[in-house]
């Protein structure tokens, strides 16, 4: 099969398409024919060597997949060959979705949402679970909560806005001016241009801040949270100083990592199928353009997601 | 830390206790201080080399754990240090619970059931999920169903009897005569001595047969299933001839493999806490007696489970 790999850490141009063997599913796993995978910022960190989660190269990146079950190992009853599925397999101990086939533990995939293309469904798992687990599992967002989403036009942010709205929250969003129409179209009630205004003056008394940006946004966000409010961040999850500042201020700090899990995927499927969630795909590129896809993701200017198709 | 390992495939005496480094949890994982682990037949197959799921030795066996969270990687919010948890981490790509510490993906563990000792909770995950996923996810057992459990006195079987009863089924069980009192104490409505009687003459018109024995039981079980009834088997899951025979007879074949999953663990916790499920621990041995524990499991004469404690 064709897969994207790299022989060394480095810039986007280390990514190359090679011919390699199909991966072999183990017990409790299935083999999925990849129709779409998505590029996430974490992929670029691993590619560059700044977050060497997969060890030394060579390896195949890619945790998002939408595709069709090609083969099930005897003993798997949740899926059968031909089923359309999506998910986020093998994180964090292996990856592999920048390829024609990927293996997936049965409990790390779910039925693909009806009404989404493979490109859309392949854009959803990692950002969708990151948003869902942050808003629901970590912060417990409820109807009527006031929720601020930083980076509302990006991969995680644009899904977080929709999920917060679906949960019944009043959603305040920060984004650059060029993304305001997009963010409003997602359902945000208020949109703040972070370059033109100080969000700490433009909003306040929030129940939850979901920070998909990092780099100083977290600490400033403590000021706009109500006492007992929750700061959710996947970006600054290891920031002990921020956690301490939150505790000192009487706010709750929830640093999160995405966790592969079928129950979250099933929740996302339900949201999509009830018309309340739709991932936005900015560009669909072939595997051969993986380097270009990484450049786009690293630019930070993309609305929504970059998808690769084998 | 101390851990049981092996330098070659072989009999129980290849198992030895060594000093080794604590495993390091990755993102989305926790480090668990092991208070109890259980020995499962699959461990013996891997130890002997007949099912080389973990590759070549050395490796540390053990998929069951009950213990206390020692450390969480920043980003994990489901658990905190000090939490009592149980689960079945890392199957099938790694293992490691025959040790003082094991790493566990957050979504492959759950809160330890209240009212169980660590020895009891450590005995439950693999057999409990094997029984739950077979009876509920694969066979869809409902109130009033007639369910036959083969090997009802063994590790999986003794849990399957209790779960089937909790689901409201009428439970018929096969076991050797010496285990009949035990199996009746689990709630079985009818118990058949498979040596004294042909179960195909002693029962029939069943909705589900759960075969935890294998070796010919599966094919004979097709005769006692009603049309459309389900044969569940983890032992003969790869038996294509049996699957074909079931299809030809108008019965459904469900070969299953256990899948690590917090939702099943949570269901087991609920059953335990409502008084409907309790794993039976036959022997508790120290890690140093891992060889003896394997001998006991391979003897097939144990009622319930063999547990190791570090």
Automatic annotation (TrEMBL), chains A, B:
A Pfam entry, by short name: ADH_N
Domain of life: Bacteria
Keywords: Oxidoreductase
UniProt xrefs under Gene3D superfamilies: Medium-chain alcohol dehydrogenases, catalytic domain, NAD(P)-binding Rossmann-like Domain
Annotated InterPro entries: ADH-like_N, ER, GroES-like_sf, NAD(P)-bd_dom_sf, Quin_OxRdtase/zeta-crystal_CS, YIM1/Zinc_Alcohol_DH_Fams
UniProt GO molecular function: oxidoreductase activity; zinc ion binding
Domain Enoyl reductase (ER) intervals: 10-308
Listed SMART domains: PKS_ER (SM00829)
Protein's name in the database: Alcohol dehydrogenase zinc-binding domain protein
Organism whose genome encodes this protein: Actinomadura verrucosospora
């Amino acid at each position: 099969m064709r897969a994207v790999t790299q022989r060394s850490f480095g810039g986007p141009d280390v990514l190359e398409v090679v011919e390699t063997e199909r991966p072999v599913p183990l017990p409790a796993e299935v083999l999925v024919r990849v129709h779409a995978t998505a590029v996430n910022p974490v992929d670029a960190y691993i590619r560059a060597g700044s977050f060497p989660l997969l060890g030394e190269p060579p390896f195949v990146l890619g945790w998002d997949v939408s595709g069709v079950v090609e083969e099930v190992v005897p003993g798997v009853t949740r899926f059968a060959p031909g089923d359309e599925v999506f998910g986020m397999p093998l994180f964090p101990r292996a990856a592999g979705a920048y390829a024609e086939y990927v293996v997936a533990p049965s409990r790390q995939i779910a039925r693909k949402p009806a009404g989404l293309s493979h490109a859309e469904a392949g854009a959803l798992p990692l950002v969708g679970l990151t948003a869902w687990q942050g808003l629901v599992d970590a912060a417990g967002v409820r109807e009527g909560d006031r929720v601020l989403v930083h980076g509302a036009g990006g991969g995680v942010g644009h899904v977080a806005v929709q999920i917060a709205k679906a949960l019944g929250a009043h959603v305040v969003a920060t984004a650059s001016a060029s993304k305001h129409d997009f963010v409003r179209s997602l359902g945000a009630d208020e949109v703040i241009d972070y370059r033109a205004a100080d969000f700490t003056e433009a909003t306040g008394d929030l129940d939850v801040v979901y920070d998909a940006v990092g780099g100083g946004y977290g600490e400033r966000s403590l000021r706009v949270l109500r006492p007992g409010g929750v700061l959710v961040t996947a970006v600054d999850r290891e920031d002990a100083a921020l956690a301490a500042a939150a505790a000192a201020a009487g706010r709750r700090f929830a640093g999160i990592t995405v966790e592969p899990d079928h129950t979250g995927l099933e929740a996302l499927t339900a949201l999509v199928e009830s018309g309340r969630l739709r991932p936005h795909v900015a560009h669909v590129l072939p595997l051969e353009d993986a380097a270009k896809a990484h450049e786009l993701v690293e630019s930070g200017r993309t609305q929504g997601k970059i998808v690769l198709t084998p």
